[in-house]
Design brief:
This protein is mostly helical and 227 residues long. The chain contains five helices and two strands; from the N terminus they run αααααββ. Strands 1-2 form a two-stranded antiparallel ribbon.
Length: 227
Amino acid sequence: MLSDRKRAQLERELAKTISSLEGRQARQLLKILGDPPKLDDITLELWETMGKEMLGVLTPATINTSLLAAENVVNSIPIGVNWDMVNQRAASWASTHNSRVVREMYGNTSQAARDMVADFYEQGLSVGDLRRRLQQRFGPMHSEMVAVTEVTAAAVEGGRIVADELAAEGVTMIESWVTQRDERVCPICYPRDGKVLGDGWTRIDGPPAHIRCRCDTAYKLPPMETE
């Protein structure tokens, strides 16, 4: 698992990059919408282009995070792994995972833009109101939310890649849930802290167990059997 300091650094860096991209995308949308705004000018191709831009940000960041987490797990045990396979699996996971994240992200944003334009005409909003709503949608809070959640997802996946590679060689690692153990730990994650995989949780339900989940997983070798 990653140290708290390293996680915080990765989150800050990713949030900053996402914020820069989303700020530019928000300005682009506002320019294309025009005054008065017309949704017909916002094409599917535009959303696809924006999604590809976000993939270009998320993919290298999540691969890097996964590999750092994988390296930490390997360094904590006296067993090596096939790093070519680890790299391949990290890239494959990032491609599949980030494509789903981006599809959901811009699907939601597309709907939000339609709702904003509808409110413009139905509620008599000004272009300034529309601009503020759109910029809020693409604002720092959203960038931070995505960064925290995706760093968590990537860090957890990095550990799992190593565990799975070792399992294929007949070495079973013990995987346990680890919270940040501070006042921000939520009621979902708090009861799972320290519990091993299968004891009230599965890989399907986390971590990340929710948006902005900051949990991680820890790994250790099973106790040596004594004769």
